[in-house]
Amino acid sequence: MKITLLCTDSRHPVNPYLERWIAEADPSLEVELVRSKKDISDGTFLFLISCSEIVTAQDRAKYAHTLVLHASDLPQGRGWSPHIWELSRGASSITLSLLEAEDRVDSGRIWAKKVIPVPEHALWDEINDLLFTAEMDLLTYSVTNLASIVPVEQDPEVEPEYYRRRTPADSMIDANASIASQFNLIRVCDPNRFPAYFIYQGHRYIMKVEHADGE
């Protein structure tokens, strides 16, 4: 079985999980990790993981199955960074969906869903670990259970909510509000890629939060 993982961002924190999944894959699997759709070949599976390129029907036709990992309970939460939007608003869990890629964003048939509880004290890196571990579980599930999986159409009675792409302004903290009232936003901000910040007396300050030693 030939499998392609397409992750267009070499700096994305999911990459170590992808590399470990490849290293631990069954020797009978032929797995490649590529950074651009121009580098895809053909095979049984094309997995789109943190992929920012548009993968067309012509691209998808090279594979028997093209699947997307999306961190929301589809059809709710289509679009960009759904788990960040939801956790920053106080959600206590993430629903991870494995679905077929289609031209209409996040509209394909569902192969599997996995609910991931997120502790209220978990910070961005711990949230990433929970999410990316679940993503690798669904990769394994789809490959292992290909013959028995029956994809399901998304519920047409549910009106989808679409999330826009986040910008640096979405990580801005109100210097005049309490930390407690903004903790859900602070804790999901990746300090390396999308740091939380605040403006005070005309100056911009980066805010980083981490667990104290021993916790």
From the alpha carbons, calculate the radius of gyration and give it in angstroms.
Answer: 18 Å
Helix content: 10-25%
**How many beta-strand elements?**
11
Strand order of the largest sheet: 2-1-3-4-6-7
Largest sheet descriptor? 6 strands, mixed
Assign the structural class, choosing from mainly alpha, mainly beta, alpha/beta, alpha+beta, or little secondary structure.
alpha/beta
H/I helix tally: 5
The proportion of strand residues reads 25-35%
Tell me the overall shape.
globular
Order of helices and strands: EHEEHEEHEEHEEHEE
Q: List segments where confidence is low: pLDDT < 50 over at least 5 consecutive residues.
A: none
Q: How would you classify the quaternary structure?
A: single chain
End-to-end separation in angstroms reads: 43 Å
Give the overall pLDDT as a whole number: 95
Summarize the structure.
This protein is α/β, with parallel strands linked by helices and 215 residues long. It is 24% helix and 26% strand.
List strands and helices in order, with pairings.
Layout: E1 2-6, H1 15-24, E2 30-34, E3 43-48, H2 57-60, E4 63-70, E5 78-79, H3 82-88, E6 93-100, E7 110-117, H4 124-144, E8 162-163, E9 172-173, H5 179-188, E10 196-200, E11 203-207
Parallel strand pairs: 1-2, 1-3, 3-4, 5-8, 9-10
Antiparallel strand pairs: 4-6, 6-7, 10-11
What does this structure look like?
It is a single chain. This protein is of the alpha/beta class and 215 residues long. It contains 5 helices and 11 strands, in the order E-H-E-E-H-E-E-H-E-E-H-E-E-H-E-E. Strands 2-1-3-4-6-7 form a 6-stranded mixed sheet, with helices on both faces. The chain is globular, with a radius of gyration of 18 Å. The termini are far apart. The model has no long low-confidence stretch (mean pLDDT 95).
